[in-house]
Amino acid sequence: MLGEFELIQRYFMSPQEAHATAGIALENGDDAALLVPQAGQQLVVSVDTSVSNVHFPHDAPAHAIGHRALAVALSDLAAMGATSRWCLMALTLDKSAFVDRDAAEQWLAGYAKGFHALCQQHSTALVGGDVTSGALTIGVTVMGEVPIGDALTRSGASVGDVIAVTGALGGGAGGLALWRQGERDLSHPLLSRYLLPQPRLAAGVALRGLATAALDVSDGLLADLSHLRNASEVGCALALDALPLANGLHETLGHDGAIKAALTGGDDYELLVTLSPRNIAIAQQRLADLGLSLTVIGRCTETLGVTGVDASDYEGWQHFSGEAP
Amino acid sequence: MLGEFELIQRYFMSPQEAHATAGIALENGDDAALLVPQAGQQLVVSVDTSVSNVHFPHDAPAHAIGHRALAVALSDLAAMGATSRWCLMALTLDKSAFVDRDAAEQWLAGYAKGFHALCQQHSTALVGGDVTSGALTIGVTVMGEVPIGDALTRSGASVGDVIAVTGALGGGAGGLALWRQGERDLSHPLLSRYLLPQPRLAAGVALRGLATAALDVSDGLLADLSHLRNASEVGCALALDALPLANGLHETLGHDGAIKAALTGGDDYELLVTLSPRNIAIAQQRLADLGLSLTVIGRCTETLGVTGVDASDYEGWQHFSGEAP
């Protein structure tokens, strides 16, 4: 097995794309990176940890693990309407999981490929990293920017605003169900939704000035909606029939399972937003230009809580865990 | 066991000291934090991971684990001459390690106390966090600032510069040896050096404009010196007799063991710097004002490599690991 320095050198200090290195005064490789924030912008920072057999199956393809660990972190920047600029990655590797040095290096090469490809897609430079030994765990810190005053938060929703969601829901849970059934083809749309989620950064930027509140659907629609309700002090009336379900979800989970996955499955990394009704058409047009749908699924109400769905019917969804079947 | 949100709420969102909240436009609690960098400053960022039984004993006191995880990360900012402003913490908890809920909460309360106390000491606000379940692992991202052009890097050393180190060396390794012998009293100076290291942030700031290169002693003096030699393209002549040894190190490890610990033990988190000989006196005065010594231990040479010590005598120091005795 290579040492830490050699590992970092070989897999995580590949030359970065020129467009991504703007704002880097000193690269990864000293004690810390030196970055140059842009004037007039606020810095947007978040950290997310992905633990093997808690957040993803340990035997998922290495490139998907690298992609996914970064994607779930970037999704938080998307939910703030920020563009992404830099990230730091703390990779804890379980060396005992590899039969030999070649297997370890093959895994790392795949992991780095998945991570770097998504970096490149979102003009994000990897500016810091740490490789340690232990149970496979990946911590990703992402740093982006948003013009002062333009950030989308959870607290701006008003009574009368409509509630809308980008793309489709339930794909994360549907993909996990397929994985447990033995499906391993990442080109299957549900499996791809689960293992290769796409952070909605462009959508977040497009919704600046339109969305009154935003967050990403990571814990499940009902749970994430409760964060929004609490922060904005509104209630929500949901229209179950309006939920945009991921392709193939009905076939995989049946009708009730599909609705449950959409409401509580999480791991979808779509944006959940509120908007004034008069702004829906323009918001939908902007997202259509990005190839993305925006579906109205409810409305903010004065009565606190959620109506339109009996939440007690939808408790106890199990996220991925090593103990599950 | 409390849920993630409750945990974060209770232990990691305690009101921050006013002086530490400057520059925070939106607190921890949304998808991401919004920060306001100061004009004329560069952002200095680094990430460090501390893994149980790799970087610290799993049964170390909880407050020391919280302190140490942050301290080793802050040490990288110190090595850049930066002041610290913000941090993010990703805590992966091994819930199975606790006999019951009370034990878990007691551990968390202690951990948070150690973490927050060091935050407060260095005016650092915790602006983001993630609590997950798995093998105990702590990732800390630190963010500081340094005026443009003032950062201390590894690459500025010149032939003729003297090499100096703050404080004393070998304490990390000496403390680990004591821990293995069963010592558990954190007031023992060596154990305190190992489990409660003090990041040298004030020293780094004081050495701005004086040090030509700097890094922190985390991997061991010889290893860290090799990073500096490679980055600056100089050699080093060391004076073994000049090494400042931690109090009690001779008694614990004997003469040869003490020298070996100072050269290769690591985990000391002192600053290793180079300076023009004419600046030594003023640098020593500035650090004396902080209650800290600065000891000249060698000189940068044209001949690459290290002289004054036979490096092959000092290979193979074992850092803490679960497999060790």
TrEMBL record, chains A, B:
Binding site for Mg(2+) 2: D48, D76
Any GO molecular function: ATP binding
Superkingdom of origin: Bacteria
Gene Ontology BP annotations: thiamine biosynthetic process; thiamine diphosphate biosynthetic process
Reaction catalyzed: thiamine phosphate + ATP = thiamine diphosphate + ADP
Domain (PurM-like C-terminal) ranges: 159-304
Free-text function comment from the UniProt entry: Catalyzes the ATP-dependent phosphorylation of thiamine-monophosphate (TMP) to form thiamine-pyrophosphate (TPP), the active form of vitamin B1.
Protein name per UniProt: Thiamine-monophosphate kinase
Associated pathway: Cofactor biosynthesis; thiamine diphosphate biosynthesis; thiamine diphosphate from thiamine phosphate: step 1/1
Signal peptide segment: none
Residues engaged in binding substrate: H55, D267, W317
Taxonomic source organism: Halomonas qinghailakensis
Domain PurM-like N-terminal: from-to ranges: 29-146
